[in-house]
Amino acid sequence: MSTATTNTSGAAAPGNRKAPAGERVADWADGRLGIYSLAKANMRKIFPDHWSFMLGEIALYSFIIIILTGVYLTLFFHPSMNEVVYHGSYEPMQGIRMSEAYASTLDISFDVRGGLLVRQIHHWAALIFLAGMFVHMMRVFFTGAFRKPREINWLFGFLLFVLGMFTGFTGYSLPDDLLSGTGVRFTQGAILSMPIVGTYISMFLFGGEFPGGDFVARFYSIHILLLPGIMLGLLVAHLILVFYHKHTQFAGPGRTNKNVVGMPLLPVYMAKAGGFFFLVFGVIAVIAAIASINPIWAIGPYRPDQVSTGAQPDWYMGFAEGLIRVMPGWEINLWGHTLVLGVFIPLMAFGLVLAIIAVYPFVESWVTGDKREHHILDRPRNAPTRTAFGVAWITEYVIVFIGGGNDLWATHFHLSLNAISWFVRIFIFVGPVVAFIVTKRICLGLQRRDKEKVLHGRESGIIKRLPHGEFVEIHEPLGPEQLHTLTAHEQYKPVEIGPTVDENGVERKVPAMQKLRAKLSKGYFGEHNQIEKPTVEEYKEITSGHGHH
Amino acid sequence: MSSQEIPEENLPAEQGTAHTAVGVADDPFADPGLPAHKPRIQDIDERAAKRSERTVALLFVLSMVATVGFIASYVIFPVDKIVYIWPFGHVSALNFSLGLTLGVALFTIGAGAVHWARTLMSDVEVADDRHAIAAEPEVKAKVLADFAAGAEESALGRRKLIRNTMFGALALVPLSGVVLLRDLGPLPEKKLRNTLWAKGKQLINMNTMEPLRPEDVAVGSLTFAMPEGLEEDAHDFQTQIAKAALMIIRIQPENIKDKREREWAHEGIVAFSKICTHVGCPISLYEQQTHHVLCPCHQSTFDLSDGARVIFGPAGHALPQLRIGVNAEGNLEALGDFEEPVGPAFWERG
Question: Global pTM?
């Protein structure tokens, strides 16, 4: 058949099917974008299911919500510090001097219909975005999902969290209200504490002395363009890597390091994940309807000589706030210069505590020496040292966070402010240590319990009286699926330095880093730092009759 | 990381393959494979499936109704209408109704989609193979060879003059961008050392905007003052008041412990910078009995009867004191600027 005849008779000939419209559109796109090859790999891509996998989705969706509402807010907000006298519809502010930024925020709240709702959705979504990222990051940490090949994606996620904090900070500073202006002042004071460059950075950031007339416009471009632009790029890279690496999964029957078990993207995950976007958006909209957030009209416009009590930043800055509150006011004056340690140390500690969690995956892979890919998640108990470290880190975070609200703790619980500050000053050091020890004990206890369950079965709750009068509880043996799940985890052995003298009795030099690595490895995987998982021999010996209640 | 010191071979067997060595039949811990699919009620009972279908449809209809409600609320409620709704108190009717209807319209779409996925779409678990992320050795060899060929053709390694001048040019060109940032702000110079206060400037009461007189300041009161000549509508008012804000209290001269403080006071009236020396919040909480002031931001506490030294909290040094006296009209006046920079400490403060 020649093509010419096909073309002339094609449309009319019965049985020579004409492609449906959707297919023709897809053909058109495929000829230009290659969508069929793309869809072949991804349309039925398998996603494993676990409740903790949705935490990252909360962060992703709240980010989208923030962008949608943020664009709307830019239509009405005036990022200007020009002073105006307010004559809008909010009575209590009549005739008060304020910046245009503050006045336009009042207009959004009181004159634009739905403006208040969008403002509140934007702010609530920002809080939830940061919280979602934080909890998602902890999920990834405690299950070991950061291990090879996902270390870079861990760093991308970490950067998103850090940039999210600064985007949030520059965002809530924009209305130029008394509370946020105080926060900006705090930031400026912290910048001034930096040795040598502090005053220069401050002058350059604020276009002169604080507050000047520039920072709202500058924060605005940082908040709506610079940081979100970087974040959008990181987010896309983060998601591409999630797709490329395929999702991790917990151990279980049929789930190995070489496969991924779950349900396909089309239709189940599209419906679930797509639906979840609407769930998140819906919940945030309801929160914004019933719970007021950042009522700037009640706070008043910023004046550098005025302040309100109980000043608190948004939650994700509470950590920085706590560090700066509990630090003793050390200042060293030498050779005509001042080293403002009382402010500079907290500034450094803020970066340091965050950096510790960021580099952790690299430390752990150095200690284990494991260069293989890991797609099976750890149960936190099966990595006791990592879990204990993570809990210690969170403990540090929470204790400092408490310090950030020391005035609220004092007024709400009728405690001494000084006592709270001293509590934080001490437990900043003691708390993580205690948390580390306690968590590790709990993990080891849980490992023992798993071992017990594997070897002796599950406690059934049924008490049996034996003929000679003894009471025993019947233990039901586990099924093969549970037996596999509870014994599937890897257990490393501590790395050994080996003999420090060679066969000729000559002392061999071991680098200090190698000694440290061996020490850490012993701390991770040595005796008493993990419970040897049950072996087939142990199991067979016990189940073959002896000692089995 | 040098692996020659610590042998790497003691890694545990890979998950999932750990038990194959013993032999699957023999191994009670072996992977039994994917469990058989358990059908849901909707898979076997068409009536249950129909029920699920109706639930999903109902949720979607509810969403449509809520969107209509959203538009209706937008039209009906005036923007300034306040209503009392238990337990939320007095709320904006528009904000409340818009938020709730929008929330319901979105939530029900999500709930419908999730219910649809959970009850009516297949829940058969499928296994997909993973492939190693790292490339096969042949691929790697090909890429390295390609790269070597490309590098060779560029002659970058051979023609060092080109290479070095190119690196030089690329290293220098961003400097233009850095230079352009210079006009972001002025240099610090002595700006942080001076305030508007100067010899002879009267203290203006910030409540009355009148010059302060000694008899206006009672023991136990806290008064805020700014320098004469500073107007609230001046373009740099915010920047000036950020440094010049002053707090005035009166202490019985015999209760002033610090000698210099007593000398710089006028009949027990002392003037201190209101800007905290920690990170610059305005201090505003005054305890009359003890003459302590507390910064509400980070709780630095200063003893105003003892040279405003720090008695608690993160501030690093005392609040600067302004030397005051009385002029011919009997008004309080400054006898000069602060002798040290006000506000947070900085590198050049000394």
Answer: 0.92
